[in-house]
Amino acid sequence: MKSSIVKAVGVASILTLAAGGLTACSSDTTSGGSAGGDGKVKEIEVWTWAAGYDESAKIFNDTHDDIKIKYTQIEPGNKGGYDKIRNSITAGNAPCIAQVGFETLPSFVAEGNVVDVTESAGKDKDLYAPAGWAGVNVGGKTYGAPQDQGPMVLFYNKTVFEANGVAVPTTWAEYQAAGEKLKAAGIKLTGTYEDYDYSGFAWQAGAPWYEIKDGAWSITPDSPANLEVADYWQGLIDADVIGAGIWSDDWAAGLGDGSIATIVGAAWFAGILKDSAAASSGDWAVAELPQWKAGDARTGNVGGSLSAVLKGCDDPEAAWTVANWISTDPASVDELVKGGGVYPASVAGLESELLATGDDYFGGQVISDVFKTASGQVNEDWAWGPGVSTLVGTLGTGMKQAYAKEGGATVATALTGAREATVSELKQQGIAVNE
Amino acid sequence: MTTSLTSAAPPPVETKRAATTPPKRPRSRTSRYAIWFVGPFVVLFVGMYVAPILFAIYKSMFRIQRDALGLGGTQEIFDPLFNYAYALGDSTFIESIGRVLLFGVVQVPVMLGLALGIALLIDSASARAKGFFRLSSFAPYAVPTVVSALMWSFLYSPTNNPFNQLLGLFGLDINFLSQDFALWAVANVVTWGWTGYNMIIIYAALQGVPGEVLEAAKLDGASPWRTAWSIKIPLVRPAILLTTIFSIIGSAQLYNEPFVLKQSTGAIDASYTPIMAAQASLQSANYPYAAAQSVLLAVGVAVLSVLFFRLTSRRSS
């Protein structure tokens, strides 16, 4: 008797729990239509993860009567934000505007998630820095307003460098030599770049990951040119000059107590440093990115994002007006610079007073001068393609293994693994891929 | 005769009436009431479970087709078996299933063994401070799994984890998140979180063991070990079976713990478990494939659970 009841309960729960697997990953049911179409006040919904947008939206709503912004902060893109955006598009209740990284835009285009706003946007092209404008165009069409850019520079702990008699490296060979010298004093470099953070090195070296050849994609993160870059970083791993894994708590602690003395990365690391390593305020400084050949002046770009106009938006023109205003209005840009420490992509943004003043965290250095130089030196022959989430996701896992020196994993094998995963995904979706 | 007949006749009519008409009313009334009691469940069940399942099955029968460069948007083409065939040939997905099976085969018996052991200890006549032990072993279940996984990821951190500081005394240093250990590091987090939950279910069943039976065993001179083995465990067998089924399903749906630990190690990839694999398909915006993976997982779990029930009920009869 008892066991038959248990059996009945058991069978019922098998069915419901087994089914739970199906429903568990179904999309968030976030409500909110994209725009209220009553003809009087247009409501444009905006989703972003960077801070400062909320203040910007307030200013917009105070100064505009015909259009109002309904703002929602979401998780950063690859921390769940993109899933949320994709789910809402699939469910048909997406916002009109969402923040999307430059690197993810081609994937969004491929998935049909964004709306072509070339017609509305064309007239405003000159309001933006060329590096930013390039980021929002895929295949000659514009999909939103550039928001920020991520030219790469070298952040270094000046106090630690001086105390150990290490000069600021200008080439990658010097960077490794600096690492060896610091290692003797028990100090490490940040070297564990995993996904997007690593892509910037390939970008600088002019070693593309995506190319279109004969009407098909070539996926080339482990091309000969890329393997040269990989060799260099593998060398740093083997020489044991790199510290705790990037983004880990140990890493943040190391930045703060001076045991990790560098970050090579995008301009937006300035904000990360201030947050993660408040203790070492005044010690850090910014220099130009080390070069492969002395005298070169080339850099890469990591990150950078746009306010993309999403599929399902019933008034893309109004959406463009809002996106353009957020990126170019001086008061709005100031809020974004204050809130998220972004390096703006618009001309008006780059002229912001906030950028022209010395930064106490960096010992009074006007760091945006370095960013400005870097922004002008970003290699222009880089393009992202479809399947980026898979490529950088797989790369991140492989790189973690390489840095842990596990199972024969190296930077090169991580790159190969990333290529294989991306190729098989693109093929599954019927996209032409060169092998 | 006639009078007796006529006098005898009415009662049966009355009883007939009594037997037919009055019960009719309650029956229709109960069915009317029943709708109110069952209705909310049925509506929620259909809306939250049946409809999404049917939709997932429907969705899984489409194939994503993009143009050559993939920049022209997406088409969904009806091709019922494409995603299923692809899933069965997808080595990462198959590996994730194998991993979870291995996980279940090891972790479920260990966890339930611990749960049963603790339940028997707390239930035993000589136990002291029962309330304290019951609560303290149940407490980890009250911690959300994401939080407990985060906490463990700090404890597993290669540079400053307390276990290695202890092991260091014996000259040992183990990276708990290396490829050899990662699955068992996950198993440990799950065991820590769910042992108490299963213990409570088994403990509750132990409370239902009749006192006379235990007294009789005692009078017959059965030792506490003997009582536990031959009386208590057989009597709480249904509860143990129930927790086993829950645990099998739980293992198949393993997600939170490995997903959180993934941040700290390269040994856990984006398709580490079947649900993570389906989630990874969502990230590449391949909803139909994610649906197919979910359907396969659900069917697999249902088959496994039914098989388990069949096996155990046959053995008991």
Report on this model:
The complex is a heterodimer of chains A (435) and B (317). Chain A is 46% helix and 14% strand. By secondary structure, chain A is of the alpha/beta class. Chain A has two domains: 158 residues, 3-Layer(aba) Sandwich (D-Maltodextrin-Binding Protein, domain 2); 205 residues, D-Maltodextrin-Binding Protein, domain 2, CATH 3.40.190.10. In chain A, strand 8 and strand 9 form a beta hairpin. In chain B, strand 1 and strand 2 form a beta hairpin. In chain B, helix 2 crosses helix 14 and helix 4 packs parallel to helix 8. Chain B has 317 residues and is mainly α. Chain B has 14 helices and two strands, in the order ααββαααααααααααα. The chains are: A alpha/beta (435), B mainly alpha (317).
Keywords:
heterodimer, A: 435 residues, alpha/beta, D-Maltodextrin-Binding Protein, domain 2, 2 domains, 5-stranded mixed beta sheet, 3-stranded antiparallel beta sheet, 13 strands, 46% helix, 14% strand, globular, B: 317 residues, mainly alpha, MetI-like fold, two-stranded antiparallel ribbon, 2 strands, 3% strand, disordered N terminus
Largest interface: A-B, 72 and 68 residues
- Reported by name, the CATH topology of the largest domain in chain B is MetI-like fold
Strand content of chain B: under 5%
Instruction: Work out the number of β strands of chain B.
Output: 2
Helix content of chain A: 40-55%
CATH superfamily of the largest domain in chain B: MetI-like
Strand order of the largest sheet of chain B: 1-2
Count of helical stretches of chain B: 14
Largest sheet of chain A: 5 strands, mixed
Binned, the helix content of chain B reads over 70%
Give the CATH architecture of the largest domain in chain B.
Answer: Orthogonal Bundle
Please give the CATH architecture of the largest domain in chain A. 3-Layer(aba) Sandwich
Judged by helices, strands and strand pairing, the structural class of chain B is mainly alpha
Q: How many distinct domains of chain A?
A: 2
How are the strands of the biggest sheet of chain A laid out side by side? Answer: 2-1-3-12-6
Under the CATH scheme, which class of the largest domain in chain B?
Answer: Mainly Alpha
pLDDT averaged residue by residue of chain A: 87
Rg of chain B: 28 Å
- How many β-strand runs of chain A? 13
**Count of helical stretches of chain A:** 19
Family (chain B): Belongs to the binding-protein-dependent transport system permease family.
InterPro entries (chain B): ABC_transporter_permease, MetI-like, MetI-like_sf
Subcellular location (chain B): Cell membrane
Keywords (chain B): Cell membrane, Membrane, Transmembrane, Transmembrane helix, Transport
